[in-house]
Amino acid sequence: MDNTNYIALSRELSLARKQETIANNIANSNTLGYRGEKMLFDTYLIKQSKGEKIAFSHDVATVIDPSIGSFKTTDRDLDVAINGPGYFKVSTPQGVRYTRVGSFQIDQTGALVTGQGYRVLDPNNQPITFQDEDSQFKICEDGLIKVGEEERGQIGIVHFNDEHLMEKAGHTLYRTAQPELPQDENVRLTQGVLEESNVIPVKEMTNMLETTRSVTTLSNLIRSADEMERGAVQKLSQSQ
After folding, report:
1. Is 14 helix (H, G, I), strand (E, B) or coil?
2. Helices 3-27 & 201-239 angle (0-180, nearest 10)
3. What's the pLDDT at 218?
4. pLDDT tens for residues 96-126?
5. What is the per-residue pLDDT for 175?
6. What is d(CA 160, CA 169) in angstroms, rounded to the nearest whole number?
7. Are 69 and 147 within 8 A, CB to CB?
8. CA nearest neighbour of 102 among 86, 93, 211, 110
9. Nearest Cα to 96, choosing from 181, 201, 180?
10. Average pLDDT of span 208-228
11. Nearest CA to 3 among 43, 48, 44?
């Protein structure tokens, strides 16, 4: 296989992984709080024995799209959305994780939990609990939860310097090694609404078509180069 084929093959492999990312985005376009992903590509050069350099394509990383999804109204007391950057903090068996999904409920112990049963944490990493008779909850813009005039706790919101570096940690959960930053003073919570996926299906479908065309073109290039190489070998063998 010559350099042309190696270069084309490296690009084809990167595009195949890009297709997987796009397909995953499309599959989650209706998932609440889901943040789409995209791949970062780089080119690296390899010096040949004759001094010439060849460029290979390399997918460096997969990063999330931190843009905010649209909001849908539910009018449910324990549904809440973050108007701006930031994440809810939840406790999981693997440690603290972060999510944009504010569809909460109260479990059998009286704790505020996510749909997966993970406890929602306050700014001090403590669970938020309620009394059996509590109802008609009011969630204020700063995350404070009230029942009537009595406070029951505050939902913890944090944000990070670079949201692109957040890593998936399960269904709409994220983790990061970055230090937590306190809730941005301009960020507010809205009760009775949920944030939808930030994936735009039409845009992702367009990306998929363009990527598929590129893969097809590269496949044809590799096939043509291979046929030329085999043809040349065949002619040489016949001439001897």
Report:
1. helix
2. 160
3. 76
4. 999 999 999 999 999 999 999 999 999 999 9
5. 95
6. 16
7. no
8. 86
9. 180
10. 82
11. 48
